[in-house]
Design goal:
413 residues, alpha/beta, 38% helix, globular
Length: 413
């Protein structure tokens, strides 16, 4: 027989006491956590998250990108300033077509200044440099549109910018100059035109006057071809200098101060927008060059080699860093072919550049241009046994650009 005891009167009070103690401990714990958070925040201040715009490159914060891809015809005038008086004698020495992509990326197309064209109603070929005297920027834009049409309908560039030497020098001084490695010493003097070029070899910091000398120097070895190669080598140092966090905030005021010294149909906001988008990532800059015929006399466009290049240009694709091609450029056919065979034999994807036939004079030293990652460039140098590595803009689809020099002629097996 099971006996059931009556319930004790003390149990409810004991249960209530236990519940009260648990609530008390929980309250103390919560209070401790809150107090610790307050004191912790005072002793070790918490960093507020940075606004998203502060995480963007400084150059990208200048302005919003353009709503669509924009083309810009950039022209370098060989006179100090622009005026009606000097148009009769001035020449344009730099022809560069640019396409800026809104999401980032900059395509550059070099147009040789000595390229000869035949104007309607004329019997004699004349170089592009002479067109400014006859019809100014409007005539140049028309002719460039015809050159790039590739058999299709000519399309004028969206915008243009004509930059004289004086304004260029002021702009370079305004950003504090830029670094550049001069391969060989440059010396030239023309007392009649009061031109004196005196630049030492080696890594230097160039001001406006020194950069002007570098751009004007042709030299007895490579002429216009060497000058275009130096322009190519200048692109990346200039782009990185403009995008420098200490320089980019100064650009709006600098451009306003120079506005009366160059000619353009760009508004101030448009200039900042193109800079912000085009220089957002310097590794997404590609550069190609219209090929010239290798015949003597006036240099015409080599249409056969230009066709695939222009087809790629008209596709308007933004440059990418996911490339694997090695472009090889040299002046001497046999040695260039030998270098190509060595690279291909080592398992590298290499091809001759469309500009190899144009280069009539050999550069002194072999230059190997590459993007941010130099791994492939190091592999190329290991195969060839020569070459100075340098970051620089590459042709579309290329990971490495090799410019063969005389040191390869001596070194080749």
């Amino acid at each position: 027989m099971v006996t059931v005891s009556p319930p004790s009167n003390k149990q409810p009070w004991q249960q209530l006491r236990r519940h009260s103690q648990a609530l008390w401990r929980l309250g103390v714990l919560i209070a401790g956590i809150c107090l610790g958070s307050v004191l912790g925040g005072q002793l070790i201040p918490l960093k507020a998250p940075k606004p998203i715009e502060d995480l963007q490159p400084a150059i990208s914060r200048l302005a919003d990108p353009p709503g669509r891809s924009q083309t810009l015809l950039l022209l370098g005038l060989d006179s100090e300033k622009i005026n009606a008086k000097n148009q009769a004698v001035a020449q344009v020495q730099l022809f560069l077509m640019a396409r800026v992509h809104p999401a980032g990326g900059l395509e550059l197309l070099q147009i040789p200044s000595e390229l000869a064209v035949l104007l309607p109603g004329q019997q004699k070929l004349q170089p592009l440099t002479d067109l400014y005297r006859q019809g100014g920027v409007a005539l140049i834009a028309d002719v460039v549109a015809q050159l790039l049409a590739n058999g299709g309908e000519p399309v004028l560039p969206d915008r243009y910018l004509l930059l004289p030497r004086g304004a260029m020098q002021e702009a370079i001084n305004g950003i504090g100059g830029l670094p550049f490695n001069i391969e060989t010493a440059m010396r030239y003097q023309d007392k009649k035109s009061k031109l004196k070029i005196e630049l030492e070899a080696g890594q230097q910091w160039l001001g406006g006057a020194q950069l002007d000398q570098l751009l004007r120097f042709q030299g007895p070895d490579q002429g216009d071809s060497g000058r275009r190669q130096r322009q190519q080598q200048l692109v990346l140092p200039l782009a990185e200098r403009l995008a420098d966090p200490n320089v980019a905030p100064k650009l709006p005021a600098l451009l306003l101060g120079l506005r009366s010294k160059f000619d353009t149909n760009l508004g101030h906001g448009e200039m900042l927008s193109l800079l912000a988008a085009g220089l957002k990532n310097p590794d997404l800059i590609s550069l190609s060059r219209l090929p010239l015929s290798s015949t003597s006399g006036p240099r015409r466009l080599d249409q056969q080699r230009a066709t695939p290049l222009l087809e790629l240009w008209h596709q308007g694709q933004s440059p990418t860093s996911e490339n694997s091609l090695i472009n090889l450029e040299g002046a001497e056919g046999e040695s260039t072919t030998k270098a190509l065979e060595l690279l291909q034999g080592a398992g590298l994807i290499a091809q001759l550049s469309s500009n190899s036939a144009e280069q009539q004079r050999q550069r002194q030293r072999t230059l190997i241009l590459h993007g941010r990652n130099p791994k492939q460039a190091l592999a190329v140098r290991k195969v060839l046994g020569v070459g100075e590595l340098q970051r620089g803009p590459l042709s579309p689809g290329a990971e490495v650009e090799v410019l063969l020099g005389k040191d390869w002629l001596v070194k080749k097996p």
